[in-house]
Structure formats: C-alpha cells, structure tokens
Amino acid sequence: MRLTNPAHLVLAGGGHSHALVLLDWCMHPQRRPAGLITLVNRQSSTLYSGMIPGLIARHYKRSEVSIDLRRLCDRAGVSLVIAEINGVDVMQQQLQLLNRPALSFSQLSINVGGDTLPGSLQAIKPLEPALETLDKDQDPSSTPFQLLGSGLAAMEVALALRQRWPKRRLQLLHRPETVPSQLLSSLSQVNIEALPNTALNPSGPGLRCTGSQAPEWLSSSGLPCCQESGRVQTHSSLQVLGHPAIFAAGDCAVVNDQPRPPSGVWAVRAAATLAHNLRALSQGNPLRQWRPQRLALQLLGGVHPEGYPQAWALWGGIQIGPHPWIWRWKQRIDRQFMTRFDQAPAMGIGPMDCRGCAAKLPAAPLEAALEAAGLKSLGSSPEDAASLGKDWLQSVDGFPALISDPWLNGRLTALHASSDLWACGASVDSAMAVITLPKTAAALQQELLSQTLSGLRSAFEPQGARLIGGHTLEARAEAPTPMSLGLQVSLSVNGKRPAHPWKKGGLRAGDQLLLSRPLGTGVLFAAAMAAAAEPEDLDHALAQMGTSQHPIVEQLQELISLEAEALPSCTDVTGFGLLGHLGEMLQTSSQSLQVVLDGSAIPALPGALKLLKAKHASSLAPANRRAWSLLDPSQDQPAKVILARAGSGFDPEDLQALLELLVDPQTCGPLLLGCSEAMADALLQADYTQWHRIGVVQ
Ligand SMILES: Cc1cc2nc3c(=O)[nH]c(=O)nc-3n(C[C@H](O)[C@H](O)[C@H](O)COP(=O)(O)OP(=O)(O)OC[C@H]3O[C@@H](n4cnc5c(N)ncnc54)[C@H](O)[C@@H]3O)c2cc1C
Question: Which residue's alpha carbon is at the smallest distance from atom 29 of ligand 1?
Fold first, then answer.
C-alpha cells in the first residue's frame, strides 16, 4: 500500500535546515504538518557549524555547539530514528537505511550536508570523526600538523588549532594563488607555515579541508544532481526537479537557477521556506519561492599574535578586521542561535508517565487483585517463566512504546521479553505478538506494523527463534504525537525447558551475586521526558538495551556443563528494580539468608546517578521504594539486605542516589545471578568481563 498525504513526512538528515524546521514546529505547533513525521540522522545530535572553529580552539565545550535532536524531536512531536541513510528508492517512495528496513514516505525532505572531497589526510567532514582525531592527537613531537585546503574553512581551522596548540608546528598546504596575501600574513604572524600543497606529507598527521561534495547515494538514487558537486538540484520552492514530493536544502542541495555555495548560512536561511512548503504541500496550498540574497556576511575567527581571539568580517570583496570586537560579536550571534534550541517549548502533547517497563503495575495492587480473583498462587509463582508441560517454558511481557522509533522499539520489547526465559537458562524458540496500533490511516498503520515486526525479528532471529503468530488491535484512544508512541507491543515467548532450569530462589550461603550490566534506564528515560538527560547518556543506554544477552546465557550454560556443579539462581532485573527482584530471590530461598551488597560495586549507566541526585526518578520508583524495607532490621530479625561500602562509608547524597538506583525500574535490564565463588571467578575472567560482582549471600 503506497502512502499518500498526509501520511508520513520523512526528514532525512538533521542538518541546520531541519533543526530549524523542528524548532519552528516547537514554537508554532499549528504549523506542524499532520500525520507521522520521522527524522533520520546518524547521531542523536548535530553540530552547529558556526561554532566548530571555536570548539576546535577550545573556546566552547562540545555540549555548547551540539543541537540535541532527540530532545528537539520529542518537543516537536517527531519520531527519531538513528540510522545511516544509504539511498532513496524514488519509485517505491522509500528511504533506504543501513542494516534495517527502509522507511516509506509520502513526502521526503533531504538535509544531509556534504562530505569533504576525497584525498589524503583525515577529512574535516563528517565533523565527528575529525574531532575525535583531534582529541586523540596528543603528539608533542615536532611532526608538523597539516591543514590541506585553500578556502576559508582551512584557514579558520588552522587559526583555531593555533589556539588549541600554542606551540605545535602547524602548516597550511594550499594552492598558492588562491589565498589572499593579507590572510596569509596573519597566518605567519602566529607561526603557521603556509606552503604549496605539493609539500604535503600524506602519511603525517593533518586534516583535509578541500571543499565538499554531496553524498554519492543521492545521485545513484536517480535524483537529479550537479555533475561536479553531486548536489541535488531543486526549484526555488526547494522541491527536487521532477520530484514534487521530495525537498532538499543545505550543502547537499542547490537551487538550480540561484546557486549558492555550500555553507551553513544558506542551510539556515532556507529553513523558513522549507518549513512553510512542507506544510503547504501536505495541505495542497501554494508553495513559497526562496529568494536568497546574493551575498552573505561571513565572520571568520582567528587569533592575535599575543594569543587572544579575534575575527574578520567578510562581505563579498569587502574585508574588515581582524579585531577582537568582531570575535565578540560573532560569539554573541552564535550563542544566541544555540540558545533558541535550549528554550524550545514542548508541544505539551506527550504523556509524562514513564513508559517501557516502568509502565507496569506496582507490586501492591497486582498482588491484591490476584488474591481477590483467587489467583494468589500466580502472584507468588516464584519463577520468571511458567512451565508448559515438561518440555517448554513460557513467559509474557510488553509495554507501551518506550521510544518513537518503531523498529528499535520492537527490538527492545523482544529483548526485554526474552530475558524472562534467559533467567531460567532457557533459549527462546518462538514468540507470538499482540500489537496495538494507533488509530490512523491504514497505510500508516501498515508502515508502523512492518517496522515493528522487523524490529522483533531482528531480536529473535539471531537467537534462532521465530515469530510464529500474533494479533493486532487498533487503539480506541486518540493517537499521541508522534503517533509511533501509540504503539503497544506484548509478547508471549516460548523456550525449550533446559534439563535443569535455573531457579529464582535457591540462593545459598556463600553465593556471590553478579549483575550482567549497569542499572539506570528508568531514571534516564524519565529525565529524557523532562529534557534533562544528556544525549550521549541516552545513546549509551539505548546501545546497551539493544544488545542481546542471549550469548551470555549460552556462555553460562557451557560453563555450568564444564563445572558440573550446583546450578546458579537467576532472575532478570526489570520493573521492580534490583532490590525488588533481589527481594523475590530471597523470598523464595531459605529464610535465614542475608545479602550484603557492595555499594561501590553496583554499576550505573553514565548519567544515571547524577540524574538521581538531581531528584529525577521514574514514575514507578515511588511504588518500588517499598523494597527499601529489605534494608530495615525488624525487632527480632536482622535486615535481609545490608548495603555496605568498603573504606570511608557513604556520603549522604551518594547513599540516597544509590538507594534510588536500587529501585529504578529497568527496561532490557541486567540478569542477576547467585552462584558459587568458583563460578563467579570463572565468569569474571577475561571472556566474560561484562559481569559485575555486587555482593555476597551469608
Ligand atoms: C571547519 C568548518 C567551519 C565552518 N564554519 C562555518 C561557518 O562559520 N559558517 C557557515 O555558514 N558555514 C561554515 N561551515 C560550513 C558548514 O559546516 C556547512 O555548510 C553546514 O554544516 C551545512 O549544513 P547542512 O545543514 O547542509 O548539513 P550539516 O550541518 O552537515 O548536517 C547534516 C546532518 O546530516 C547527518 N547525515 C549526513 N549523512 C547522513 C547519512 N547518510 N545518514 C544519516 N545522517 C546523515 C549528519 O550527521 C549531520 O547531522 C564550516 C565548515 C567547516 C568544515
């Protein structure tokens, strides 16, 4: 089924134009086109080009020059897909992605920037790997660092590097006739050698700033592109020639009858027309024509021989400076640009209750309802999965979409549901899915469903498991924005019962407690909804959550067969947090046991403890705090769990954050293992390093 308006607008690339379009929708929600909108970018943040030289010179921190696309998308009601785009199928209206299914679109807008022309040395674009190279380059030797290029970008990077490395030998390798002599003399004043590009040492350190070209996949997709630069040709409405439903802007595109050089300034200026026309086309209204100025003011950063920053102002052939006040002016303009993104208001449509596994019912009403229904035995069922006869185990799990990317959400739900079987030492064999789709156009439901199903398969198939059936439903409630958050996936997973399933109970005195990965997904996603989580922390958490734990279960099975010793106890840490699930293990083990947790060994995902200290918490955390009672001694009994810390004990703030971490609900959380000391030692050896030893049973 082909998508028609207003179904799915896909924004390919999170460049300057798209970031500003998203900002426009945050500021003016009524201007956002109806339907599902998805942004695809290779990272969850994008760098503001005007401040890159300042970042290289260390005037700015990375966070000051990064636009957080995830936060912007959340606020604009747009789905975010982190993926590498590698083509457009214009006939099928699909954007092709690396290692995942293509996205169908009814309208496409492309703003993927350009890459540095091929050649020697590390390319300056894409920027992220170039910045990484600089960060790693600590070479104090006399090997000169080379900047290859004859344009303003090469000069500006050379001057920025002089501020970063006041003493290092720097060389600008350029085509002699192209750089104005006045600018060259500014380089020599700060000890940057200007040499002809024939003097290049291709194996030496350096950066290539030789101009850009659009990604090759644009022309190989059959879109009309300039022969030399590869830039997609558009009308002044920013519609691609011959493809009225496809727009393009920024460095990857050029307006056919009003060409402008690839530069962030033009990508920024095209944004207002792009935002207007995306909506106008979806509504069948007349489009606006973009009439760019002939010239743009350029402010070029530099450095005074005494080491303080200065800048030039360039307008066509006119040049003013260098002067420190021009630098201060440039800084003010750039900072104001970035502040607008920090101040973007949320559309106010998104739900604020935590999603993922944090959307499960608290333990108390669950137990009470089971008892009232005469199913108390189910509530006290000690194991993570139920036995179906002697050969099979079954479990069921699911939640309202945690993230707006339906493919990744499907994958995470499948991995989360699998962990109940893994905790029994079983391998997943098959699964059935119940998928609730938002109430929307049938073609869009089809797209959301196929993305979700592909995500489920991506998690099951590497385990040798199959999706064998299921059922779909259409929600009766109004679809949220973005509507991909209206997806709910529930899975029943079936696994072959191992000869000796691992039990949740069965902890023994002397057992070591091991955790397979860090905690903190609950608070990170709660903070993300309050726009308080750092983008790289969320990326880190999602990367961990999207990694299957079935290989470690297989390794563990191998180890058990080698050791021929008593089985471990195991559970998966999910909605009730580490302490809640540890409590279940204790409840089903011998009454007289006590666990000593090593507070300094409990691993947290990056950013989690900081957010807990700032009082962020999942909406399920308050109910989970009842598990803190395990830490309290009663009149005649010592505490079931002791939180210890070697050395100086706990700082009160650290202790409080740790207590919160212990009840943080986890989606795709770790396995918690109780095993003999010998097995723990074997697991902590090099091959199994992901395990953390967090405590001991006594
Ligand atoms: C050192 C340096 C300094 C500069 N200084 C200035 C300046 O001061 N002023 C100015 O106007 N211009 C400047 N420029 C030029 C400027 O960087 C670019 O013109 C500008 O970034 C282009 O913006 P854009 O919106 O087209 O794309 P970009 O800003 O390049 O953004 C494209 C986005 O798309 C993503 N993307 C790309 N390919 C894919 C893919 N295949 N799959 C998924 N995502 C993808 C990228 O990760 C990126 O987030 C400078 C350039 C350099 C190298």
Answer: 15
